[in-house]
Amino acid sequence: MKNYYIIDFDSTFTQVEALDELARISLEGSPEQESVYREIERYTNLAMEGKISFRESLTGRISLLKANRTHLDQLIKHLKKKVSKSFDRNRAFFQANADTAWIVSGGFKEFITPVVAPYGIKTENIYANTFLFDDEGNIVGYDDTNPLSDEGGKVKLLKELNVQGRLFGIGDGYSDFQLKESGLIERFYAFTENIARQSVTEKADHVTPSFDEFLYVNDLPRAISYPKNRILCLIIGNVPNVAAEILKNDGFSVRIKDSFEEKYVKDVGMLLLGDNVSIDPNQLRRANKLKVLGYLGDVKGNVSRTVCCEKGVVIFDDKRHKKRNAEFIPRRMADFINHGDTYMSRNFPAMTLPKLKHAHRLIHIHKNVPGIMAQINKVYAENEVNIFSQFLMTKDEIGYAITDVDAQYDKEMLKQLKQIDNTIKFRILYK
């Protein structure tokens, strides 16, 4: 059976609610702009939380809009810039699944189609409402015979379509959950990249903070190797807010704590520490998922460099207390996770890598002993891997080998690379 992906538009495919944005555009300059916008937003939220019917919400919002075709042109330009980041970077998924990736929305085709079509989503697979216009092009209503204009509209539509296959629903609102409640879809994924509604998330089969997460848990081809929302970044001590914002905006799961609590030791992937914060070496040894540590001060005497090298943990610190390092250090941490860059590292060889294009980046961290590269390249040769580029640098006891390869290879090869003697850590990146 085919898999079908039923994807919402507002606050899912895009970061915003389109009718709310249309209200801002159409009411620009009006003294009533803010009050009317808030009322439209209220209607939106009540429906999304299941507190009023969708039709009641839709009728209320349309009556307040005072919009025309010119405003729609402006809205479309705006929405194209507001596509959710994780959807935008996974264009290839839609192109590969053009027949089964559908947009099903209570929004309107007039603005949805121009936004999603460039991603390879077919016009016939866009299901949404349509506006009614008067002779001057003003929006005066909507086609109320469309099932999507009614309460439970997505359920009614899919019953009419009688799709033969396994259906997966992705959305942020109550109307999306209704598909699961009806039994028409196999699993419902509450999408929270832009907004999290408790009334929806608590009923979902899975909460997906990004489209990358949805693709990952379903083992589907994706633009990045591992969802960043699954990488726990702990911030401890006196760290400026700008540092947390940089890491949050990059998609990492950020938590701010006063100390390195034991319950986080086994899951932490990134640590950013304020000056004078010390970490127990025994905790550090047990932090098996930890990949990078940033320190806003001199790390010496506060974090064991020896343990970090043993564990393959990259350190970036700020021993000169430069003012801008509250931004520089978290960016270096993100660059290491995203690309493998170790420039300005305290304990690793400094390497700035080229951008990755149509390849997988295999990162091998190992003890700096003779013969490692020969073993690595033997594995590649035996598996007939096409190598695009390769880099090796060493520093003291650490060897850092980067190999960009063609994405087509036997996954068994990865186990072979991990089993090479003196391997400390192995990672795969693709983006």
TrEMBL record:
Q: What is this protein called?
A: phosphoserine phosphatase
Keywords assigned by UniProt, alphabetized: Amino-acid biosynthesis, Hydrolase, Magnesium, Metal-binding, Serine biosynthesis
Pathway the protein takes part in:
Amino-acid biosynthesis; L-serine biosynthesis; L-serine from 3-phospho-D-glycerate: step 3/3
The signal peptide annotation in the UniProt record is: none
For this record, the Gene Ontology CC terms, alphabetical, are: cytoplasm
**EC numbers:** 3.1.3.3
Which reaction is catalysed here? O-phospho-L-serine + H2O = L-serine + phosphate; O-phospho-D-serine + H2O = D-serine + phosphate
- State the needed cofactors, names only: Mg(2+)
Domain ACT: start-end pairs = 361-431
Q: According to its UniProt record, what is one Pfam family this protein matches?
A: ACT_AHAS_ss
Q: Which PROSITE patterns match?
A: ACT
Matching InterPro entries, A to Z?
A: ACT-like_dom_sf, ACT_dom, AHAS_small-like_ACT, HAD-like_SerB, HAD-like_sf, HAD_sf
GO terms, biological process? L-serine biosynthetic process
Q: Name one GO molecular function term.
A: L-phosphoserine phosphatase activity
Matching SUPFAM superfamilies: ACT-like, Formate/glycerate dehydrogenase catalytic domain-like, HAD-like
